Amino acid sequence: MNPQFLPFALPDITEAERGAVDEVLRSGWITTGTRTREFETAFATRVGAPHAVAVNSCTAALHLALEAIGVGPSDEVIVPTLTFAASAEVVRYLGARPILVDVRAADHAIDVGAIERAVTPRTRAVLPVHFAGQICDMDPILQLAEAKKLCVVEDAAHAFPVTYRGRSVGTLGDITCFSFYATKTLTTAEGGMITTERDDWAERMRIMSLHGISKDAWKRYSSEGSWFYEIIAPGFKYNMTDVAAAMGLVQLQRADEMRARRRDIARRYDEAFGGDAALELLSVRDAHEHAWHLYVIKLVREALTISRNDVILELKSRGIGTSVHFIPLHIHPYYRDTFGYRPDDLPVSLDCFERSISLPIYSKMSDAEVDRVIDSVLDVLTTHRR
Ligand SMILES: *Cc1c(COP(=O)(O)O)cnc(C)c1O
Question: Among 4, 38, 78, 222, which one is least packed by beta carbons within 10 Å?
Answer without folding.
Answer: 4
